[in-house]
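User: Run a structure prediction on this.
Assistant: Running it now.
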Amino acid sequence: MMQSVEMYTDGACRGNPGPGGWGVLLRYAGVEKTLHGGEAMSTNNRMELTAVIRGLEALTKPCKVHITTDSKYVLKGVTEWMANWKMRNWRTASKKPVLNVELWKELDELVVKHELEWSWVKGHSGHVENEIADQLANLGIDELD
């Protein structure tokens, strides 16, 4: 039987583009693990995507994962847009190259390994786990210096 994992992700940027950070809170069987990191020059969307990628990479075997994000870009990208982008060879409906394509391709390889359920939560609305992921993302930026 697949193990169930809760994952809360967030990305942050100081300036867009600017120094960026990502944070992940993983919860499995009552145990919590946190991950975070940063990039000297990034965008908010790149950091949101990176958080989900790093969270999924941290899983050592296929799991049932409930991912909570405050990024509609990530949520819509993975649940609505990605299938069409792939059919069009990673091009948008207007035939432009998909932005952040290398991250989307990384995510595409990871999502097939797990059984995923996605939830969106409004950022900075007092959702405890989202606030923790946000603090981790900001820590990722703080540690860049």
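The radius of gyration is 15 Å.
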